[in-house]
């Protein structure tokens, strides 16, 4: 049965912001989520048991304990949650997964920050970032001075399904879309998401030196997952422009 199994009952949160870290284009969400969990030494708050999550167990380097592939981490002091996933969610199962997670958002007053890369060839310029929203999320973006989209677009895959479900049920959420490498893990895009999006939205300062100093190591570490994402389906999480006239 689909459910969120809370492990840390002693953690108290008050309508927290949640950073969604599902793997997608450039692995922007995955890199961002992993960095936040590691940087703040966040508490393993809950395991996510939803339809659509592969029935596998994962383990970490130098740790004998098995873990579920999708987990929630919490930082009580910063009133912050992170959804961390070690596996891709298959697009065909995205709807069931979205309904399970959204129900928990609603019950616990969670405001999600969805992350998506928009695949574009890399340049020497800083990756562009803009925000989208549902409910009262627009005011959060305005207060954080996050820019608006410059073209029409669509978010696909599991993150797109989550956004659609939240929109359908009238909940507040924010989406951050960043220009990212379409083929390889992109730590620089994750850095932009953190500094230009997550920091002003949460009011939490996040050190990102490791993302810059160890960018090549991060790319290599995440490359296998990126390849698996390409094998899953062309409809993995990503933002795409919709050009009406071309």
Automatic annotation (TrEMBL):
Pfam families: PAC2. Residues 224-246 are annotated as: Disordered. Gene3D superfamilies: PAC-like subunit. This is Proteasome assembly chaperone family protein. It comes from Halogranum amylolyticum. It comes from the Archaea.
């Amino acid at each position: 049965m689909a459910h969120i199994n809370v492990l840390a009952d002693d953690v108290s949160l008050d309508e927290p912001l949640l950073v969604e870290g599902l793997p997608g284009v450039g692995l922007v969400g995955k890199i961002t989520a992993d960095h936040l969990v590691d940087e703040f030494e966040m508490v393993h708050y809950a395991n996510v048991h939803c339809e659509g999550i592969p029935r596998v167990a994962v383990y970490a380097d130098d740790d004998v304990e098995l873990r579920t592939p999708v987990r929630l981490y919490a930082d009580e002091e910063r009133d912050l949650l992170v959804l961390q996933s070690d596996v891709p969610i298959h697009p065909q199962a995205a709807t069931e997964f979205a309904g399970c997670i959204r129900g928990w958002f609603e019950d616990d007053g969670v405001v999600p920050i969805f992350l998506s890369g928009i695949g574009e060839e890399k340049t020497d310029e800083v990756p562009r970032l803009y925000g989208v929203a549902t409910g009262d999320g627009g005011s959060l973006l305005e207060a954080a001075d996050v820019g608006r989209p410059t073209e029409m677009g669509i978010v696909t895959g599991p993150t797109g399904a989550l956004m659609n479900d939240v929109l359908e049920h009238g909940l507040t959420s924010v989406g951050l879309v960043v220009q990212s490498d379409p083929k390889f893990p992109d730590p620089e895009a994750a850095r932009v998401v953190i500094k230009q999006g997550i920091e002003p939205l949460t009011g939490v300062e996040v050190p990102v030196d490791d993302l810059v100093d160890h960018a090549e190591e991060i790319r290599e570490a995440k490359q296998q997952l990126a390849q698996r994402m390409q094998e899953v389906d062309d409809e993995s999480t990503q933002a795409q422009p919709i050009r009406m006239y071309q």
